Amino acid sequence: MHLPLSLRRRWSCARRQYSVLSVFAGLFCFFLFSATTYAHGVAEGDKGYIQEITGVNILPFIYLGAKHMFTGYDHILFLLGVIFFLYKLKDIGVYVSLFAIGHSSTMLLGVYFGTNISGYLIDAIIGLSVVYKALDNIGAFQRWFGVQPNTKAATLIFGLFHGFGLATKIQEYELSRDGLIPNMLAFNVGVEIGQLLALATILIVMGYWRRTDSFLRHAYTANVIMMIAGFMLIGYQLTGYFVS
Q1: Which of 54, 83, 120, 171 is the most exposed place for a label (fewest CB within 10 A)?
Q2: What is the pLDDT of residues 102-132, one digit of tens each?
Q3: Global pTM value
Q4: Sign of CA dihedral 93, 98, 99, 103
């Protein structure tokens, strides 16, 4: 039996909408799992290995940098918010470069000078960056205050805080000062590799979604979900700060 064309189209549309919502529901569940399992911590295996080695170790630090960025749910959520409504590769390149400049500079400086900033507070600010970008995407600042923040400046500034977040995590490894600079440069290369891998994954999913009719209908909901995730990250980190 063949279904009427109109019914098949409605079912096809419903499946696409369900697919989109499933992606963001999965993202939300992944955030919840990550926040309770991996937040503000370093894998014990990685930590033990790094503590035992000295001197220049380029490949291990490239691997660690890529792993941290690609599995860093907070960085990925912010990156998703940044490129959410960017369609041109040139614009994506500009914003991602600003983010990279920001987090690279403070990560390297933070580790080299041994900045002693609470990782919980930095991660709470990173959660705030996710909230900010979600609100910006739904036009909240224009509706509430009649102004539009400079999105490029905000991406750079929040990138600086993301870099401090990376620096606090790196210092948990209790790194040897022997070979510190080349190792940190290698870690930064890995971070950029991980960021490109995460960006490519996001762009593939977004490219598929943008071709469907459901994108504009669910874009607002998706950003609200991101905002909720950002608030949860803020709450989780502030709780950790006050009880630790």
Answers
A1: 54
A2: 999 999 999 888 887 888 999 999 999 999 9
A3: 0.81
A4: positive
